[in-house]
Amino acid sequence: MGVYQRQRNAARLAHLGVAKRTAAIYTSTIGAAQAAWSAVRARCIFSASLNESTLQKFPGAPPGKGAGFDDGRASVRWPQRVAGYGASAVRSVFDDLITTAFPSDCRVCNGPLLCASMLPICDACRDSVARQTDALCARCGEALDLDLESSRQLPAEGLLCHVCRAVPPMFERALAYAVYQDKLREMVHLLKYERMREIAKLLGGMLAKSILTLRCETGRELIVVTVPLFPSKQRQRGYNQSELLADAAIAELRTLAPEWRLRRIAGLLVRTRDTQSQFELSTHGRRRNLAGAFAIDSAKLPPGCEVLLVDDIYTTGATARECARVLRRAGARKVWVATLARAQTPRVALWEENGMRAAQG
């Protein structure tokens, strides 16, 4: 072993010994939050202070970038690294203080919240909402009875469900981010019935990812229209949840696709009568219930435009079909439909069966 190697190994051993002793001093007899902060400090101080790039080149040492003086790049990265560690440590301490002084539970799973946030939903519930991966109808997004291997062999234009083949809708395509179930269903209920409007930003981000898949199919400009509520119902709820989702999605898309122009026009589509709750009706009853329930303010609709219709849930498609029909007849060239969630056929059939049983007593 040469002089250079012995000196370099001695420096490494000395460095490791100091780091271990310092970390032990920092983390003894203190709480979990301060221990995390101390561990970060130990890493910040000692992780990059002595390495091959900062060792002096000794006579006879092998040539190479790592054996000479630092070229300056490590000194540029070091403050950024320290700032990142410091911000993470401060955030960890802040979360510990807030969740200890003001403990709270997740409104979805009822588990304890471990991070301070204006939205009482834990990270596990937020991350549990997965995008749809099944083979879907190329028109309405209905799940097709195909396995994953068969879905890979679908033609480029996709397959249609039996409803879209029998009665094609007047919209080009309907898509949804995820299936309406489990954690997502609870989040939608918090938005609609618990007046937790802060959740619209989280759900709107999911909706934006779904809308982004239309970028290559639509024009450069889209008029965004939301499915309206009857005025008395909107006053009772305090807002239209579809408007909140659309605004949050548009804000997110300004970052994801700044060249794509999406403009929401309020009041373009209106509900002319207070319809019966769709949940209580069969598929055919929902279509009859919505017939003639929507109208267009033609003065607000640019002729020949493409429209993106936004709603929170796509159930049987009766609402989307009726709104698309009205928009097309008023002069829209194309109508696209985007919803946060999609209730697939087996779940819709179960709801209808339960609803009929409840009605019968």
Overview of the structural elements:
- The chain is α/β, with parallel strands linked by helices and 361 residues long.
- It folds into two domains: 3-101; 129-133 and 169-360, Rossmann fold.
- Helix content is 46%, strand content 11%.
- The strands form two sheets. It has a five-stranded parallel sheet with strand order 1-7-6-2-3. The chain has a two-stranded antiparallel ribbon with strand order 4-5.
- Helix 2 (32-46) packs antiparallel against helix 3.
- Residues 15-76 and 347-352 have low confidence and may be disordered.
How many β-strand runs?
Answer: 7
With strands numbered from the N-terminus, the spatial order across the biggest sheet is 1-7-6-2-3
Mean pLDDT: 75
Weakly predicted, low-confidence segments: 15-76, 347-352
Which CATH class of the largest domain?
A: Alpha Beta
Key structural traits:
13 helices, 46% helix, single chain, 361 residues, Rossmann fold, alpha/beta, 5-stranded parallel beta sheet
Topology:
Layout: H1 3-27, H2 32-46, H3 73-101, H4 123-127, H5 148-151, H6 162-166, E1 173-179, H7 182-193, H8 199-211, E2 221-226, H9 231-237, H10 241-256, E3 261-264, E4 269-271, H11 283-290, E5 294-296, E6 306-314, H12 318-329, E7 334-342, H13 345-360
Parallel strand pairs: 1-7, 2-3, 2-6, 6-7
Antiparallel strand pairs: 4-5
Helix pairs in contact: 1-2, 2-3, 8-10
Provide a brief overview of the structure.
The protein is α/β, with parallel strands linked by helices.
